[in-house]
Amino acid sequence: MKRFVCALVIGATNLLGGAAVAECDSGEQIIRMSHVNRPYNHPIGDAASELEKRVNQEMHGIACMEVFGNSLLYTDDRVVRALIENDIQIAVPSYGALDEYTRTFRVFGLPFVFKNVSAVEEFQESAAAGSLLIGMRGFGIRGLDFWQSGMLQMSANTALRVPLKAKNLTFRTTGSTVSNVQFAAMGAYARPVSFASLYGELKSGELDAAEESWANFLDKRIFEVQSELTETNHAVGGNVLIVSYDWFKNLEPAVL
């Protein structure tokens, strides 16, 4: 397991340039990965691209990784099911996309539980956080690591300095139950929308506001369609690196 897992860990920490879909050779085991972010200049996309590069360089002739970013294969609401069905082998869904399979990742959406990114990192390195990663095996999912993109902020066409300013606004969410309750308490509405559709829905007025990390606001150029970005740091914006459990435990020794 050392070679593949080592590549996964290094891919999360060495954030280098983008990558295109690999050209795989006959006989190589194909490993397909899906995420929703751009493949460069974004924490998730950079980590995925670095992972792809290392696997294809260090395991050439044995395994070949193909990474599909920008929701090219699946949006967050479909990617976990695709992984369970082995259409892909690795995915990096948001915490909210896992609500159907476990409630434990809701801790990252609880308002103001984590003071800052350092507090998040300290928790994610703990044994308690490690137990979250293995809690979905009954669904055929194995979590390997947390890939975070920073604390969550809020955007709208008005500065959201107090909760009252959010009243009657429709916010984009990932479908997280915690977000739904949070916005209801503010007198606002929550509507699940895929990350791929976020820009268009804000531009058309179907959505009034959003909660995202700074990295995701930049990824989707939200500043072009929203006049105000309010720094709230109210929750954690992040994703979970997951694999198909059956696929992972049955990898050939040469791949592991």
Short description:
The protein is an alpha/beta fold. The chain has helices spanning 2-13, 43-58, 76-84, 117-124, 127-133, 177-185, 198-204, 214-219, 245-249, and strands spanning 29-34, 63-68, 90-91, 141-156, 170-173, 189-192, 209-213, 228-230, 236-244.
Structure description:
With 256 residues, this protein is of the alpha/beta class. It has helices at residues 2-13, 43-58, 76-84, 117-124, 127-133, 177-185, 198-204, 214-219, 245-249, and strands at 29-34, 63-68, 90-91, 141-156, 170-173, 189-192, 209-213, 228-230, 236-244. The chain has 2 domains: 2-148 and 238-249, D-Maltodextrin-Binding Protein, domain 2; 151-237, 3-Layer(aba) Sandwich (D-Maltodextrin-Binding Protein, domain 2). It is 31% helix and 21% strand. Strands 1, 2, 3, 4, 5, 6, 7, 8 and 9 form a 9-stranded mixed sheet that branches. The longest helix has 16 residues, at 43-58. The protein is globular and about 60 Å long. The relative contact order is 0.18.
Observed structural traits:
single chain; 256 residues; alpha/beta; D-Maltodextrin-Binding Protein, domain 2; 2 domains; nine-stranded mixed beta sheet; 9 helices; 9 strands
Secondary-structure topology with pairs:
Layout: H1 2-13, E1 29-34, H2 43-58, E2 63-68, H3 76-84, E3 90-91, H4 117-124, H5 127-133, E4 141-156, E5 170-173, H6 177-185, E6 189-192, H7 198-204, E7 209-213, H8 214-219, E8 228-230, E9 236-244, H9 245-249
Parallel strand pairs: 1-2, 1-3, 5-6, 5-7
Antiparallel strand pairs: 3-9, 4-7, 4-8, 4-9
Helix pairs in contact: 1-2
